[in-house]
Write a structure and sequence with these properties.
Layout lengths: L1 H11 L7 H11 L2 H15 L6 E4 L8 E4 L4 E4 L6 E4 H10 L17 H16 L5 H32 L6 H23 L1
Antiparallel strand pairs: 1-4, 2-3
Helix pairs in contact: 1-3, 1-6, 3-6, 4-6, 5-6, 6-7
Length: 197
């Protein structure tokens, strides 16, 4: 899903944006659609090496889409708009990325889960997924894949935000959100790419 969806969003980006101020903001922050396409191909060529299994994934598992019923002791998921087959590590990475906040004013990367939290979470996930206790190697492998796929999550939602920046009537600064997500991508990519190679 992730590669097709990013490609779809890139194809929806206007050239140029309909309002000159939007185009100027886009150019100042991202250069051009061509530059983003080149970055997309670079990201894809690196992440296909991770060998994360393909699973049926929610792909938008922010905390607001996880409903806990304390009385019944159940957890339900909502908002399956992006549900599709995707890398297992992408869905987990996207979930962890969403811990930092949903709106521009609330984003706090100090809320990104620690390695200990992620390892514990992944161990529980793999116990259910494998119907067996995972080995420490299995847990560490998925943890590493999740760190890599966090890049794809930032890139996907950054490009999605740029599409919304042009098309949405919602009172939200999608341009700023795109800057936040894509800046985080660029901030992390060199470290993560070195680990893949």
């Amino acid at each position: 899903m992730v590669w097709n969806k990013i490609d779809q969003f890139l194809n929806l980006l206007p050239q140029p944006f309909s309002i000159e101020a939007k185009q100027e903001r886009f150019t100042n922050n991202f250069g051009s659609v061509t530059k983003l396409r080149i970055e997309f191909e670079r990201l894809k060529s690196h992440l296909i090496k991770t060998q994360s299994p393909i699973v049926f994934a929610h792909n938008d598992l922010l905390l607001g889409n996880v409903i806990y019923n304390k009385d019944a002791g159940t957890i339900s998921f909502i908002d399956y708009e992006y549900a599709s087959y995707n890398y297992q590590a992408f869905d987990i990475a996207n979930h962890f990325n969403e811990f930092v906040g949903l709106s521009i004013g609330d984003i706090d990367y100090n809320k990104y889960p620690s390695k200990d939290f992620q390892v514990s979470w992944i161990k529980e996930y793999l116990t259910e997924y494998l119907s067996a206790t995972p080995t420490p190697h299995d847990v560490e492998k998925v943890y590493t894949e999740v760190q890599h796929h966090s890049l794809a999550s930032h890139f996907l939602w950054g490009i999605w935000s740029l599409v919304q920046y042009e098309l949405s009537d919602i009172d939200f600064d999608f341009g700023r959100y795109a800057v936040i997500r894509l800046n985080r991508y660029y901030e992390l990519k060199n470290k993560v790419f070195k680990e893949i190679l």
